[in-house]
Amino acid sequence: MAGTTYTNALNFSGNVSNRNQHTLHNLHQNFTTLDGYFGYVSGAQLDVTFNIIGDGRLIQSFDASATAAPMHFSVSVAGVDQLRIEVVFPTMGGAQSSHWALAAYIQ
Fold first, then answer.
1. pTM (2 decimals)?
2. Dihedral angle, C-alpha 42, 106, 7, 17, nearest 10 °
3. DSSP bridge pairs for 104
4. DSSP result, the chain
5. Which of 43, 57, 79, 88 is least enclosed by beta carbons within 10 angstroms?
6. How far apart are the first and last CA of the chain?
7. Measured between alpha carbons, how far is 18 from 36 in angstroms, rounded to an integer?
8. Around Cβ 36, how many Cβ atoms within 10 Å?
9. CA of 55: how far to CAs of 5, 29, 88, in Å?
10. Please, what are the domains in the chain?
């Protein structure tokens, strides 16, 4: 992201047939904070929405721009059993695809 290489990151890719990407993490209420960076990697320069969802409720939502520097975030996940990290891509045409990454740690 923006010229920095992260060795441990989640990659999210959206295209015309797959606009929503997510990962699920079972935290079992053992963690308090998710902290890291989210940003554009390559492909179509499309803006996305980045959602942090805990136990089915929206904790935090961010609008991210492909032309901006990677966005730092720090979100409380205290008391969360299951964490969903979701990226919502806009409607795309043709063979467009857009690639984003999340580099974060949880404590």
1. 0.88
2. -30
3. 36
4. -TT---SS-EEEEEETTB-EEEEEEE-TT---EEEEEEEEEEES---EEEEEEETTEEEEEEEE-TTSPPEEEEEE-TT-SEEEEEEEPPP--TT-EEEEEEEEEE-
5. 57
6. 23
7. 25
8. 20
9. 31, 10, 18
10. 10-106 (2.60.120.680)
Token digits for 8? 């441990």
Q: What is the mean pLDDT of each run of 10 residues along the chain (107 residues)?
A: 73 75 94 94 89 97 93 96 92 76 89
Specify the amino acid at residue 11.
Answer: N
Q: Maximum distance among all alpha carbons in the chain? A: 43
Selection from 52, 62, 51, 50 nearest residue 82 by Cα: 52
Identity of the residue numbered 55: D
